[in-house]
Amino acid sequence: MITAKLLPLVASIPSPGSDRIEVGPLTFRFYGLMIALGVLAAVEISRRRWEAKGGDPDDIIELAKWAVPAGLIGTRIYHVATDWKSYRGDWGRAFEIWNGGLGIPGGLAAGVLVGWLFARHQGWDVPKLIDAVIPSIPVAQAIGRVGNWFNQEIYGRPTDVPWALEIDEVHRRPGLEEFATFHPVFLYEALWNLGLAWFLIRLDAKKILRTGQILPLWIVGYGVGRFIVEGMRTDAASLVFGIRINHWISGLAVLLGGLWFFWLGRQPEGVEDPHDLDELELDLTDEPTDEDLSDEDADEASPAS
Fold first, then answer.
1. H-helix or E-strand containing 200?
2. In a domain, 178, yes or no
């Protein structure tokens, strides 16, 4: 551990001096700007990947019009629902998203679900669209996490490692006032997400996965990373049986994502969308039976009338 007195003697990552930028009468918070930048990056990556798979890149823009707002709403609902005690007596603060407090699991679930429903309504090739879009999501998450740096939040235990994060005294949590540098947990999660995005793109390029398997694999990858990072955080969180609620959610994501991944891998070859199984079964029942074949032979043998 390291105290504030030792801070000048070690290398560390400084925190920004301000969490906003002012342009004339307008004020822009870096937290929101990072989220917006992450969304733009995800849209551009998805457009290029979808076009490479034969789709119309403008489809991604239409998709984003529905999925992004749903995701933002989902993040806030998840955060408030899992940390509702912080807003008792002042529920108006629940709408102050510029001060942080976005529950990523809720946003991911809401954004992906709404995007999936919209794509099916449009009649697009949903499994291929999923393969194109999913790797861009962890990239957006990584960029968005930089906003936590500006807000001086999402840090871990005190440390003196060279990449330790400096936290101003006003942002230090009760009991940690004497320490000045901490584990940059936001950075760990950002790097994990970038690595996950690279991994998914490489697998997709090598044609190792079945169509649609990227989605559950991403869920597993994100769940593992979030489970690890959650154990490093020191901020207050709602507990279930003494365990942080995001640990429960991450573990459940890994379990369900893994089962889904292996289930998709066991589907018959040529069936890319599970909904196509019904059509496959109908085609199989249309094959001629032995009785049909015998009737056809009898017709060929009888003289023309």
1. helix 185-205
2. no
In a domain, 278, yes or no: no
Q: What is the model's pLDDT at position 303? A: 41
Q: Tell me if 144 sits within 8 A of 35, measured CB to CB.
A: yes
289 within a domain of the structure (yes/no): no
Predicted pLDDT of residue 72? 87
Owning domain of residue 219: 17-86+94-151+184-271
pTM of structure = 0.80
pLDDT at residue number 75? 85
Q: Are 112 and 214 in contact (CB under 8 A)?
A: no
Amino acid 19: pLDDT: 87
Q: Which two tokens stand for residue 238?
A: 């709602």
Question: What residue type is assigned to position 83 of the chain?
Answer: D
Q: What is the pLDDT of residue 2?
A: 42
Q: Which long-range contacts (CB under 8 A, 24 or more apart) does 152-155 make?
A: 152/15, 152/16, 152/19, 153/100, 153/186, 153/235, 154/185, 154/186, 154/189, 154/233, 154/235, 155/182, 155/183, 155/184, 155/185, 155/186, 155/233, 155/234
When divided into structural domains, the chain yields a total of 1
The DSSP bridge partners found for residue 165 are 13, 182
